[in-house]
Amino acid sequence: MPKKSATSLVRRISRREVLASGAAAATLAMPFVIVPGRARGAGRVVVVNFGGAMGDAKQKAIYGPFTRDTGIEVLAVPGPDLAKIRAQVQSGDVEWDVVDLLDAWVPAGTRMGLLEPIDERIVDRTGVVPLAKHDYAVGGSISAGGIAFPTNRLGGKVPKTWPEFWNVAGFPGRRGLRNRVSDTLEIALMGDGVAPKDVYPCDVERAFKALDRIKPSVSHWIAQTAQTVSLIQTNETDFTFTYTTRVKDMQAAGVPMGYSFQQNILGVGWAGVVKGTRNKEAAMRLCAYIAKPERQVELANLSGDAPCYPDALAKVAPEARKWMPDVGDSNNLFINPGWWDTHIDDLTKRFKEWLLV
Q1: Which residues pair with 335 in a beta bridge?
Q2: Nearest to 240 by CA among 256, 225, 255, 262
Q3: What is the DSSP letter of 135?
Q4: What's the longest Cα–Cα distance across the chain?
Q5: Residue 69 burial (C-beta neighbours within 10 Å; 0-12, 13-18, 19+)
Q6: How many angstroms separate the CA atoms of 344 and 215, rounded?
Q7: Residue 76's beta-bridge partner residues?
Q8: Which of 40, 236, 296, 341 has the greatest number of C-beta atoms within 10 Å?
Q9: CA distances, 175 to each of 64, 144, 253 (Å)
Q10: pTM
Q11: To the nearest whole number, what is the mean pLDDT of the chain?
Q12: In sequence order, what are the residues at sequence separation of 6 or more whose Cβ sits closer than 8 angstroms to the Cβ of residue 314?
């Protein structure tokens, strides 16, 4: 069979295929798709997000109200992927208008020319926390990751900080960490006693030495986020790195599980406009909506992730606010996407090889 050229592979991603697959996936995973049928057309934007409970919350807090206020329809589909964004931009057949972005994708997407600059004439970000502002993306929320633990066993002797997590003699128990180097490298440095303000630029050798020490006590290197809490629930591990929203959902379901806010890793939930979109103005208007403090407060009430505006935190309902990190706490660490942009490839390879040893 002759090899397919890169061009032919790109052309396989037709609009119809993307929308058909997206709609099918949405039927299974995202029942909140609000505009069935054609995605392309005047006054419509296609938004790609990570789905799940956060996708549901965005539908209620952002997409639905945006359509009601502007008349611009929104088609939400799951599965943002940097490689797919690049394929669309390079082929000139851009199907996605607005995409949710991981921290590390923002500088990478900017460097590769995959994102439109944010139009400050349309998007007002006055008062946003500086680390949630980027020339090519808007910050929509701030998530927190920290230590989860069971509350029905171990007699309450559980680690609350990363140095305590690394203290396996003082806090005996099985550990669970992610099977990816990002986050894990920063956690290792804090576990070794590095203050959050000194984590970047990362001392890679020190981090791997710290990982060497904790490795015998790690029962699971976790691939799927859901497992960061399910493994505690099923008593397959004791302490994991997970997210506030995951533990919040577990507690709501009656699972005896706690979470420490004493030393968290904070990440921004970004959204950007794909370079070459034919709905640029509508996409920018949606970004403006995502950046509105009042929309972020509503999203926070539904999701448990914090708004990107310090002044907005007080407006979040008390029941939701108790799950949100203090973004001004010096014990917390904001992920530095710029540092990872130039290190992610090499360190991912090294970390995967280290896991196999």
Answers
A1: none
A2: 225
A3: T
A4: 64
A5: exposed
A6: 21
A7: 47
A8: 296
A9: 41, 19, 23
A10: 0.75
A11: 87
A12: none
Structure token digits, residue 338: 């710029």
What is the distance between the alpha carbons of residues 80 and 286, in angstroms, rounded to a whole number?
Answer: 17
* pLDDT tens by residue, 26-56: 333 333 333 333 344 448 999 999 887 788 8
The token pair at 215 is 């490795």
Tell me the two tokens of residue 319.
Answer: 């029941």
Helix, coil or strand: residue 1: coil
CA distance 155 to 163: 20
Q: How many CB atoms lie within 10 A of CB 24?
A: 11
Per-residue pLDDT of 72-97, as tens digits, reads: 999 999 888 888 999 999 999 999 99
Neighbouring CB atoms inside 10 A of 240's CB total 28
Alpha carbon 203 to chain centroid, angstroms = 24
For residue 205, give every residue at least 6 positions away whose Cβ sits within 8 Å of its Cβ, in sequence order, or none.
none
**CA neighbours within 13 Å on the CB side: how many for 105?**
24
* Rounded-to-integer distance, Cα 208 and Cα 180, Å: 13
Are 93 and 255 spatial neighbours (Cβ–Cβ below 8 Å)?
no
From start to end of the chain, where are the E strands? 44-49, 73-78, 98-101, 133-134, 137-150, 175-178, 218-222, 239-243, 257-259, 265-273, 333-334
